[in-house]
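User: Hello! My lab partner asked me to get a predicted holo structure for this protein. The small molecule is zinc ion, SMILES included with the sequence. Please write out the structure tokens.
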Amino acid sequence: MKVLADVHVHNFLSNCGRDNTSTAANYVKRYAELGIKILGFANHIWDDRVPGASSWYHKQTLDFSMQIKPMIPKDTLGVKVLVGAETEYCGMSKTLGMSAEGAKELDFLLIPHSHVHMVNFVMEDPAPYAEARLWLKAQLMQINGMTEEQAESWVAPLREPLLRPFLQRPFEDWPAYLADFLVESFDSLMDHPELHKILQATPVSIAHPFQPVGYWQHTEALLGLISDETFARLFKKAADLGVGLEINTHCNNPAMLRMLTIAKDQGCKFTFGSDTHSISGAENIFNVQPAVDALGLTEDDLMDFIK
Ligand SMILES: [Zn+2]
Ligand SMILES: [Zn+2]
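Assistant: Hello! Below are the structure tokens for the protein in complex with zinc ion.
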């Protein structure tokens, strides 16, 4: 089966957009050239009906991101254009950044449970890192004369490897820490009552499942720590709910393929995403093909909205 859909595309309206030419019209043109049939915009959104947005998400409301709709050209050159979103799931507080009411405005919704680079928002620091943060804050107040607020805002966004020199005791067990967090956050997301409401009207796929954003170097090791039984249990839950999993450009390796094979065996459906933030990255969607071939996927394995 050929990959003919990309439903994880960010444009210039995203905070992390890196390309001012990444307009809806330019994407449509580029995907038409590439022969891609379905293009799904999925900018980062925190629905302002839900309290608790981080400062990074503050501006990225539904209204702001839906400005893309009138920017989509009338003639889409044979490409079906969908407007969805990539919201947030903060596993540490079990907070989902999208309401069922808000999701009704979307053709589809991607939910990541693995934006672990958003420290102390999505995932809590391991204890030695939390201690290092406190230690550094105290130093900045004492030695540099910062106020508590200044020191806090300086220290809060730091993460590995920047915090590492300030550790007062060693911490090497990232794979196990990440594995435990990702299992728990996937599990609690599947049980989330708002997700169940969203699913009544809007299809949902999990963006980059079990891929720890910002900690990519630990992916293979952490996947190796999660048993077949655990994956089977989690993916059965997803399959029963009709929640899909995203296959992306990082999936063509034995560790990810093992995980995705278990998902397929449990009846999960899939979506494809390049996660591109620029027009030049659009062709990355073709890097999804080897994993699709290795898994032997057919149309039946796809979520309906990407068929
Ligand atoms: Zn993401
Ligand atoms: Zn993304």
